[in-house]
Amino acid sequence: NRFCTTFHNRTGFLCDDRATCILASQVCDRVSNCRNGEDEQDKLCGDLPHSLPGHLIFRCSNPSYWVYADQRCNGMNDCGDCSDEMGTLASCSPCGSEWWSCSPVFYQYCSCIPRWLCRDGVQHCLSWSDEYIC
């Protein structure tokens, strides 16, 4: 079993040393993150996403698309339709303290924007709440 949870409570892949837990998105990224390179082996990366263990992937609402499991509920629109952030399968908690809840104007975000974008003189929320309230 290669399932583990990273220090940021994200889905991970357990290396052969049974101590190193890397993010799911670090598997098959052409960079060896495990000491023995097991995260880049052909048996794992040969036929993406089918060759990956199921816990490493999240299927978007459009079955043709998938993202790594640690990209689910990360605040970014990784699926392209926000199903990794707002979909029933994603089951994400509301915006965290580092995020501002609004309807974003940019395709990059779904229902929250990073707070560091607040009061920067650029509209990121349809209601402009990022400039006047946040």
What does this molecule look like?
The model has no long low-confidence stretch (mean pLDDT 94). 6% of the residues lie in helices and 16% in strands. 28% of the residues are buried. It has a domain at 1-73. By secondary structure, it is mainly beta. The protein has a 3-stranded antiparallel sheet with strand order 1-2-3, with no helix packed on it. It has a two-stranded antiparallel sheet with strand order 4-5. A two-stranded antiparallel sheet has the order 6-7.
SSE order and pairing:
Blueprint: E1 3-5, E2 11-14, E3 21-23, H1 42-45, E4 57-59, E5 66-68, E6 99-101, E7 112-114, H2 129-132
Antiparallel strand pairs: 1-2, 2-3, 4-5, 6-7
How many helices?
Answer: 2
The amount of beta strand, in percent, is 15-25%
Radius of gyration (CA) equals 17 Å
Number of strands: 7
- The averaged pLDDT comes out at 94
Q: Helices and strands, in N-to-C order?
A: EEEHEEEEH
- Portion of residues within helices: under 10%
Structural class: mainly beta
pLDDT < 50 runs, ≥5 residues: none
What's this model, at a glance?
The protein starts with a strand and ends with a helix. It has 2 helices and 7 strands, in the order βββαββββα.
Provide the descriptors you would attach to this structure in a database record:
134 residues; mainly beta; 3-stranded antiparallel β-sheet; two-stranded antiparallel sheet; 2 helices; 6% helix; 16% strand; LDrepeatLR_classA_rpt; LDLRAD1_C
